[in-house]
Design brief:
GO terms for molecular function: fatty acid synthase activity; phosphopantetheine binding. The chain is α/β, with parallel strands linked by helices. Strands 1, 2, 4, 5, 6, 7, 8, 9, 10, 12, 14 and 15 form a 12-stranded mixed β-sheet that branches. A two-stranded antiparallel sheet has the order 3-18. A two-stranded antiparallel sheet has the order 11-13. Helix 4 (about 120-125) runs antiparallel to helix 5 (about 135-140) and helix 20 crosses helix 23. About 40% of the residues lie in helices and about 15% in strands. The longest helix has 24 residues, at about 690-710. A hairpin with a 3-residue loop joins strand 1 and strand 2.
């Protein structure tokens, strides 16, 4: 194996949304370990076009999104492809799972690599007659990675890949290369596959690719096609050296990867090639510095199509094997269906979890075994079992093959030296001794557990999630590890509290009483001061405060979802603006009239009205929306506005003041006469002497500053 810490890549975080209500790696592992299938749910529908193929395995609530968390305006969120919206949330869940902040700072470069191959939402946007730029950008495939990079504030590589079914494994391959080359320090490799229109499924069905009973039966004589399924998956990757240095939780290690193409080695464009599949596996093993025979298990592409299974099983049988052992194989598609562009990454997560838990999980629906399965070479794993004994490290391969001929393979290994990856061993070295993050005792001073969220409602929900974690777990994380992870491996949001406890029971009591707990504390004054500083928004050096612990999985920041789906009822962003008529302004107080125009325009452009004293950028305004707001206000108020006015006057209050000021001095506006004395009299009548004087002084100051700037230039 290549043991260079710069070549080996650690999987440090996982986020996923899958059919069957699977939300996160723990839920996925339960499904796999229990040998269950996520069946189609007829109650899951889409806002458009409604019910799809009854055999499709769908994710619930794909129109739900916490736009406010990411500072995205509701109108823009409506236009965003749900694949991109879910990628944002799942990426943050993967970061939280790995104990990594959303924004890592200017010295850490993050790369984003996304595999996706559908643009169904573009059809939805077109059906809603949305022809504005927001609709086009929202549905564009390039936005999938660009959105993540924008919200991570990362200037690292940002790529969207489409190699059909192998898209996500190709994304992992490029992420590995980017980390090795030093282009980035953290990589997010993700994939999304949502079924939002019927045309692709109709084409698959007409070609006979879909199973009549809606089940993938890899390796079975009864295999008759696949069932379509949805998935959104993201893994956080770091160089193994860096992950160890940061005491990160490591699921498994990517030792090598490769991609290739069938390149005419099959009968036609869409027929897979056993020769090419063998070649990509050999190249990935060479990249990992191991022999092919060291792969004890291969997670197959395994769709359950008769032709595809026959080709892949013949390729697996032709590869060298461990001495006196069968090649173990299986396919997660028998549990979830075919997640298409996300399929390779779903297979990689399954295999990483098997290495993490040191268990192989069963492949379903394999009976009766297909004649294509060579019993002298291959065994389909049909039960949950330990990994086979090995003289060295455990290695597994993951395959993903595109319909158009692009093949990918990734070699994974469990950590067998240094820090182990199993959940019971985090923080222990291979000899069983406790490292820096070893398990501690709970008979010392009280532990500090800071909790925070973006809103008060989210903070209450987070407290409830901690209560559920403590009550539901047979063996909850050590209190010291909870405190360490909550303080040192989590983002700290505006709404905050600090809990203190010496035991799980004390923590549970503090959570349910909605107080801070820990009343009998030997250093009460220092604790009160620390809590005051933290809750006031001060950045606390928690690493200096907390005793070191392990990074453990804690409840993620709660999402406060709204419903977002593009409709033709939204119309033009200027549809609700008031027309520029003299009577509309003359008949009202100018300040009230101006505020009404600004509020209406902001509501139409953003889809909501943020607090008038807060920056419009907090409400999700973008440069494009700023131009739309400018045009709307010029039409409704008759005032000429600079293209940069929204940056110079960033709040609703500031915009109102600016427009009032411009209306007071622009010639030709309906409310003013060209005669200065008449204009001043009208201003005093409408605004009052004090407000008129204030506005005039403000304008004089602005003109003076402009003149001074021009002279200096």
């Amino acid at each position: 194996m290549n043991t260079d810490g710069d070549r080996s890549i650690a999987i440090v975080g996982i986020g996923c949304r899958l059919p069957g209500g699977i939300h996160g790696p723990e839920a996925l592992w339960r499904l796999l370990a229990e040998g269950r299938e996520a069946p189609p749910d007829e109650s899951v529908t889409r806002p458009w076009p409604g019910r799809l193929d009854p055999h499709d395995r769908l994710i619930e609530d794909v129109d739900a999104f916490d736009a406010g968390f990411f500072g995205i305006a509701p109108r823009e969120a409506d236009c965003m492809d749900p694949q991109h919206r879910l990628l944002l949330e799942v990426a943050y869940e993967a970061l939280q799972d790995g104990g990594l902040p959303l924004v890592l700072g200017p010295h850490v470069s993050t790369g984003v690599f996304v595999g996706t191959s559908t643009e169904d939402y573009a059809r939805v946007v077109a059906s809603a007659n949305r022809t504005d730029l927001l609709g086009w950008v929202g549905a564009a495939r390039a936005s999938a990675a660009a959105r993540l990079s924008h919200h991570l504030r990362s200037a690292g590589p940002s790529l969207v890949l489409d190699t059909d079914r192998s898209s996500s494994l190709a994304a992992v391959h490029l992420a590995v290369r980017s980390l090795r080359e030093g282009e980035c320090d953290l990589a997010l490799a993700g994939a999304s596959n949502l079924i939002l229109a019927a045309h692709t499924g109709t084409a698959f069905g007409a070609a006979g690719l879909l199973a009549p009973d809606g089940r993938c039966r890899f390796g079975s004589a009864a295999a008759s096609g696949f069932a379509r399924a949805e998935a959104v998956v993201v893994v956080a990757l770091k160089r193994l050296r860096d992950a160890r240095a940061a005491n990160d939780r490591i699921y498994a290690v990517i030792a090598g990867s490769a991609v290739n193409h069938d390149a005419g080695r099959s009968d036609d464009f869409l027929t897979p090639s056993a020769q090419a599949q063998c070649a990509v596996i050999r190249r990935a093993c060479a990249d990992a510095g191991i022999g092919v025979h060291e792969l004890r298990y291969i997670e197959a592409h395994g769709t359950g199509t008769p032709v595809g299974d026959r080709v892949e099983l013949s390729a697996l049988a032709a590869l060298p094997r461990y001495p006196a052992a069968l090649r173990l194989t299986g396919s997660v598609k028998t549990n979830l269906g075919h997640t298409e562009a996300a399929a390779g990454l779903v297979g990689l997560v399954k295999t990483a979890l098997m290495l993490d838990h040191r268990r192989l999980v069963p492949t379903l629906h394999t009976r009766p075994i297909s004649s294509a399965v060579d019993p002298e070479a291959i065994e389909l794993v049909a039960d949950i079992r330990p990994w086979p004994d090995s003289d060295g490290p455990l290695y597994a391969g993951v395959s993903s093959f595109g319909l158009m001929g692009t093949n990918g393979h990734v070699v994974l290994t469990a950590l067998s030296t240094g820090w182990l990856a199993g959940p019971e061993n985090h923080g222990r070295s291979a000899d069983g001794q406790e490292g820096r993050q070893g398990v501690g005792h709970e008979d010392g001073p009280a532990h500090l557990i800071p909790l925070s969220a973006r809103t008060p409602e989210a903070l209450r929900t987070l407290r409830s999630a901690y209560v559920h974690m403590l009550k539901a777990a047979d063996d909850p994380p050590e209190l010291r590890d909870i405190a360490w992870t909550a303080a040192c491996r989590r983002d700290h949001h505006p709404f905050r509290t600090v809990l203190t406890a010496r035991s799980h029971d004390e923590l549970l009591a503090a959570l349910t009483r909605d107080d801070r707990g820990g009343e009998d504390n030997g250093d009460a004054e220092a604790l009160v001061e620390l809590t005051r500083r933290y809750e006031a928004g001060e950045n606390i050096d928690w690493v200096a405060v907390q005793r070191p612990g392990r990074t453990v999985r804690l409840p993620a920041h709660p999402w406060l979802h709204g419903r977002h789906w593009v409709t033709d009822e939204q119309g033009s962003p200027r549809a609700g603006a008031c027309p520029p008529t003299a009577s509309s302004a003359d008949d009202q107080d100018p300040e009230a009239w101006t505020r009404a125009q600004v509020t209406a325009a902001v509501a139409q452009v953003l889809g909501h009205v943020p607090d008038a004293s807060l920056p419009l950028s907090d409400g999700g305004i973008t440069s494009l929306m700023g131009l739309e707001l400018r045009q709307s206000l010029m039409e409704s108020t008759g005032v000429e506005l600079d293209t940069t006015f929204v940056y110079e006057h960033p709040t609703i209050d500031a915009v109102c003041r600016h427009i009032l000021s411009r209306r007071a001095r622009e010639p030709g506006t309906p409310q003013l006469d060209d005669d200065l004395d008449t204009a001043l009299a009208m201003l005093q009548q409408h605004l009052g002497p004090d407000e008129c004087e204030r506005l005039l002084h403000a304008e004089l100051r602005e003109l003076t500053e402009e003149r001074t700037h021009e002279e200096n230039v």
